[in-house]
Amino acid sequence: MHRNDTLDIAKGLGMLFVVLGHMSWSFAFRATYSFHMPLFFLIAGWLLSEKLSPRDYLNRRFRSLMPAYLFTAVCMILLSAVVNTVSGKSGQIPAGMLRVFIRALYGSGLTLNPSLFGIGQIGAIWFLLAMLESTAFVRWLISICRKTAVQVVAVLIIFVISCVTARWIWLPGSIQAGGTASLFVYLGWYARTQEKSGKIRLDMPVQYLALALGTAAWIAAFLLNKGLMVCSASFPFPLVTIPLAILISCGVISLSSLLSRFSLVRHTVGFLGQHSLIVLSFHLMELDYCPWYLLYKAMESGGVSILVQHLTVFVMKILLCSMLTLIALRIPFLRRVFRIAQSSPGSAH
Fold first, then answer.
1. What are phi and psi of 234, to 5 degrees?
2. What's the rounded Cα separation, in Å, for the pair 109 and 120?
3. Quick one: which of 246, 266, 248, 247 has its CA closest to 257?
């Protein structure tokens, strides 16, 4: 079976926006946080497989996501020791490593809300926990209930509970992020069922329409400037921002379908999407431990405009993560960690 080039490219574009959104740049936030995380969860729902029992599905997802989480957490712990050593703070190595270890156990993506015991964030790999929780929940839900109305009510209840409780306390395992992500996973799965039944057409006119609507929605979301933060279960103006996120995501997928005709796009952007777990892992490491501020300072002293500074750092981040991913793909141990050899190229997950 061959891979779905459209979805690989869509995830690759999503990864570009993930890296962009984590930069200290107001434009990047406005351009990114209106849709980039819902995009990944919608795709996950589209690919959700019903061939396995809910228990077997959970086991499969756990084995595909948690080794990547563990590997990234271990690397973060070791890198904290390296950074403290290089910066002449060797006395802080044990405390620093313990702090990262505890954060990895807690699994918080963003500490906008108070967490139990005041534990800080581990960063971008919260996504792996939320992906495991949301896809497992939706798979369980559709196995015990076939009535769409009941499914929708259940997903909405979980969504609301997750958003409301997140305002008071942030629970371990990014479970509230997973609860809100379930909405997008379910919508992706439901869209796939409608496509299979012929109720949704994906021909060329529909793709152009989706791209046009997605572009208009992105402009509206950019002007509104109310980003969705799945990592903290924060959804301002949900009756507006959630539909915009869905429209933009559909536009990105339609754009990806059009771009899939080009080999260069399939082998570059599609590569990032195909190996998005590895790219995400290395992105978190460079985000937390690469001294990009030194490059910013050097360019600023050289009179480089702030726009060029941001674009230069962005390109270098992408190149670094891509090169590290290429290296990782040649290491058998890392291929096993990220389950490269065991993944079926076109299969649902």
1. -110, 115
2. 9
3. 266
DSSP state, residue 197? T
**Is residue 73 within 8 Å of residue 125, measured between CB atoms?**
yes
Q: What is the pLDDT of residue 114?
A: 72
- Is 106 exposed, middle or buried (CB count within 10 Å of its CB: 0-12, 13-18, 19+)? buried
Residue with tokens 């015990």: 144
Output the 3-class SS for 87-99.
Answer: CCCHHHHHHHHHH
The closest of 110, 80, 75 to 95, measured between CA atoms, is 80
Contact predicate 209/257, CB 8 Å: no
Task: Of 206-210, 244-248, 337-341, give the range with the top mean pLDDT.
Answer: 244-248
Give, as one character, the DSSP assignment of residue 171. Answer: P
Q: How far apart are the first and last CA of the chain?
A: 14
Residue 91: burial class (beta carbons within 10 Å; 0-12, 13-18, 19+)? exposed
Specify which residues 234 forms β-bridges with.
229
Residue 229 phi, psi dihedral angles, 5° rounding: -120, 85
CA distance 71 to 334: 9
Bridge partner list, 170: 115
Secondary element (H or E) of residue 115: none
Number of alpha carbons in the 13 Å side-chain half-sphere of residue 97 = 14
Structure token digits, residue 318 = 């992408």
The predicted pLDDT at position 204 comes to 80
For position 171, what pLDDT does the model report? Answer: 92
What percentage of the chain exceeds 90 in pLDDT? 84
How many CB atoms lie under 10 A from the CB of residue 303?
A: 6
**Using an 8 Å Cβ cutoff, are 138 and 189 in contact?**
yes
User: If DSSP codes are grouped into helix, strand and coil, which group holds residue 220?
Assistant: helix
Q: At residue 149, what is the residue type? A: A
Which helix (H) or strand (E) segment is 234 a member of? Answer: none
